[in-house]
Amino acid sequence: MISPVPNTHPQTAAWLRKTKAKQPSKMPPAAILRAATIVASLFRFADADAAMQAAEPAKGATKQIDLGGGTTLEVIYLPPGDFLMGSTPEERAWATGIEGGATPGTTREKPEGDPRSTRIKNGLWMGRTEVSVGQFRRFTEESGYVSDAEKHGGETQCFDPAWNGYRLTTKVVHPWKSMAGKSWRDPNFNFPMREDFPVVCVSWNDGRAFCAWLTKRERDAGRLPDGWEYRLPSEAEWEYGCRGGRERAIFWWGDEFEEGEGRLNISAIDFLPGRRKTWPLAKAPWSDGFAFVSPVDHYGERGRNGFGLADMCGGVWEIVLDHFDPQGAHEEPFFVTKDRRPACRGGNYFDVPGNARCAVRLGLRGPGYSDSRDGFRICLGRHVAVP
Asked: Which of 293, 242, 288, 253 is nearest to 269 (CA)?
């Protein structure tokens, strides 16, 4: 008597019937059961792949990924499409002007490149928000992972509580410095971290480790077809997602900065905790409610773009898969073998308006570098080989 295979797939049941009919005495029951289990797994993977390849999901379709422990992560479907990558000379002039506030004469805007037609050939699923503290905590609890900042000798860039102004007329004093003993668990904000804050003080290595854990978890559960993986989005995928279906605009909602009120978290009219002063450089002329990080998706529908993605401008810089090319972002993922500087996109809570645009980009110091202004979001897409 062959014990039933739990949740037997219809094709597996047919295979079992044929096996018993053709070889009733040559194959031990235990061996048939083991083989049936393998066949069932193969059929489940085939079905999952067929489902991915069949009818394309609608734009904005969502899925909840179970991370275990009562924690989930939501992803949204982005169909294939075209957009204009980069920025116009007029946009870059605004970014370094009186309202944009980015420092003129630097190389920050040059690497964006002029607008060029870019194609996202394959649909993908992207996280509605950046990965949160609670989601990253779930990953570390199950995997035992230790972030780069937490390793022996590790450091991360944090706010310096002794900072009391830039002193631009005398000696410039920056509000950030590298600190040991700080990490995503305590980014030195001097207020309690919430589980729904975006995780910060994480590196490119840390983001990729989270994605590798999730890929293995979903593949082991039979929910991930061959050729698909959870990973960081490429620069092109990220910018396509940020624009939310628009071909081109300065921000995902359009070209007028003041229409961004109630949509994003950047430097604005918000006192620093325990002080009666704001960030001192160019800022939004309204309060967004937070001098530092804000909870993911805090602004609700108003903070979501045409794809339904939240917090794409401002919030925290989002580390992407590509290495930074100072000549501009690429349509296909870009990697180098020397001086690897991960690219990051989108601006952060401390940034001036000119640095919170769809096209803005910068390169980090290295794969292990982390900062209390940097986080990441994930995507589910075709496998990308990273050297």
From this structure: 288
